[in-house]
Amino acid sequence: MHYTDHLKNPGMTGDYIGLWKSRWHEENKAWLYPAKQYAIYAVVALACLSAWVAASKAKFWK
After folding, report:
1. Measured between alpha carbons, how far is residue 26 from residues 14, 22, 23, 54, 62 in Å?
2. Mean pLDDT in the chain?
3. Looking only at Cα atoms, what is the longest distance across the chain?
């Protein structure tokens, strides 16, 4: 779809993108969901690690 088509019919672009996203999501959900879980685990682990480092460097414990 060209940019000029978007100017003629702006609603068509949204429908087209929605269809593409849903098809892409269906084709890739086998690895998408585990990757999302691992990303969440990595963020939580990083947050815990940074909290642990901050607590260990605090003067409160010394």
Report:
1. 18, 6, 5, 42, 54
2. 76
3. 68
Q: In residues, how long is the chain?
A: 62
* DSSP 3-state of 2: coil
pLDDT digits (tens, 9 = 90+) for 3-31: 555 555 555 565 666 666 677 778 888 88
Q: How many Å apart are CA 36 and CA 26, to the nearest integer?
A: 15
Residue type, 5: D
Measure the CA–CA gap between 17 and 5, rounded to whole angstroms. Answer: 14
User: Which amino acid is it at 25?
Assistant: H
Q: Please report the pLDDT score of residue 1 as a whole number.
A: 47
DSSP H stretches of helix in the chain: 3-8, 10-57
